[in-house]
């Protein structure tokens, strides 16, 4: 990038920052991190872990941007159960990159100074033991924090989350010795919501998907009923602060009527 173009970029970014600062921010941003493979191949990177390491490093920037804008909750979808069907070297590369990043987060001074609470959501028993141990370490190290919530959706699928929530709700009902009629009556939207992986957190106001795909693919299906969506052609490792600010600005420009 030439110096002149870099200057224009900074001026435009500063203008976007002023625009979004004047309006309400989303309380919860969800991001579908897509395009790691295409970005890696375009830059001559073929080793799976190296491909996904670039995407994992983008997390630090996302946290910086959310902290700057006082966005309290962010959920990043890094791996779905369907991804287990990819070639084994690629699956291992993705999970190794996730594990390395989570290990870093557990000891990152910025995570602790910003009081970021890290949590992994998904079918965690499907994950390798080493990754589970790293998740436990990161969660324990940040469990008492309340400055920002960072959710890492790994082995996460929205349909499975809803099924798990209903099953947990029914188990609770059975544990109280209640019968079938009581169990049926207990199945309400609010009750299911209390058993989701994200229970206690606000639903996402804004969901961003990179790489040009225009679908949710199962991300936060229950929670996204009132979400605004923003799709961009930018591949995840190339996602810039300018792109993030554009997404926030687009969210702020929409009229959210919630059916009214």
Keywords for this entry:
260 residues, alpha/beta, Undecaprenyl pyrophosphate synthetase, 2 domains, 6-stranded parallel beta sheet, 10 helices, 6 strands
Question: Can you offer a commentary on this structure?
Answer:
With 260 residues, the protein is of the alpha/beta class. The protein folds into two domains: 26-156 and 203-251, Decaprenyl diphosphate synthase-like (Undecaprenyl pyrophosphate synthetase, 3-Layer(aba) Sandwich), CATH 3.40.1180.10; 158-196. 50% of the residues lie in helices and 13% in strands. It has helices at 3-21, 36-42, 48-68, 88-107, 109-113, 129-142, 158-175, 180-186, 189-193, 241-253, and strands at residues 28-32, 73-79, 116-121, 148-154, 206-209, 228-231. Strands 3-4-2-1-5-6 form a six-stranded parallel beta sheet. α1 runs parallel beside α10 and α4 runs parallel beside α6 (129-142). The longest helix is centred in the N-terminal third of the chain and has 21 residues, at 48-68. The radius of gyration is 19 Å and the shape is globular. The N and C termini lie far apart (47 Å). The mean pLDDT is 94.
């Amino acid at each position: 990038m030439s110096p002149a173009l870099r200057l224009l970029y900074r001026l435009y970014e500063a203008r976007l920052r002023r625009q979004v600062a004047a309006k309400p921010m989303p309380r919860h941003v969800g991001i579908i991190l897509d395009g790691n493979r295409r970005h890696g191949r375009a830059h001559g990177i073929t080793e799976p872990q190296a491909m996904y390491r670039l995407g994992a490093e983008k997390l630090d920037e996302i946290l910086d941007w959310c902290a700057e804008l006082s966005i309290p909750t962010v959920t990043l979808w890094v791996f779905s159960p369907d991804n287990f069907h990819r070639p084994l070297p690629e699956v291992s590369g993705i999970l190794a990159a996730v594990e390395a990043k989570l290990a870093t987060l557990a000891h990152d001074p910025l995570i602790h100074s910003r009081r970021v609470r890290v949590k992994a959501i998904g079918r965690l028993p499907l994950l390798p033991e080493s990754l589970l141990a790293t998740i436990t370490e990161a969660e324990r190290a940040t469990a008492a924090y309340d400055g920002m919530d960072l959710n890492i959706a790994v082995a996460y699928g929205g349909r499975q989350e809803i099924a798990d929530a209903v099953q947990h709700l029914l188990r609770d009902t059975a544990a109280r010795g209640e019968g079938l009629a009581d169990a049926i009556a207990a199945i309400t939207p609010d009750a299911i919501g209390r058993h989701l992986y994200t229970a206690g957190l606000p639903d996402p106001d804004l969901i961003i998907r990179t790489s040009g795909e225009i679908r949710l693919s199962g991300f936060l299906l229950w929670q996204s009923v009132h979400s605004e969506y923003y799709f961009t052609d930018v591949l995840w490792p190339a996602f810039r602060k300018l792109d993030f600010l554009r997404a926030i600005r687009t969210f702020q420009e929409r009229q959210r009527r919630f059916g009214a």
